[in-house]
Write a structure and sequence with these properties.
The chain is an all-alpha fold and 69 residues long. It has helices at residues 7-23, 30-46. It has a domain at 2-49. Helix 1 packs antiparallel against helix 2. The chain crosses the membrane at residues 33-50.
């Protein structure tokens, strides 16, 4: 469940959405799209919705569980 609180995951999903839209010939202003994504992610991070203070790794790294070591 901690993956849903990962800023990097949402940034990569936004990039995937942009690629999919462009693959279907949808005209997208990339600069505006990037600004909107940065704004939304910034607001979510500031609100504490997508920040996970319990993790030791950031972005795409998962914490190792005790039994995996």
């Amino acid at each position: 469940m901690n993956r849903w609180r990962n800023y990097g995951m949402y940034a990569s999903l936004a990039a995937l959405l942009l690629v999919v839209l462009q693959a279907f010939d949808v005209k997208v202003d990339v600069d505006l799209f990037n600004k909107i994504v940065a704004l939304v992610l910034g607001v979510l991070a500031a609100a504490g919705i997508i920040s996970n203070p319990t993790t030791q790794n950031t972005w795409f790294g998962d914490d190792k569980k005790e039994d995996e070591q």
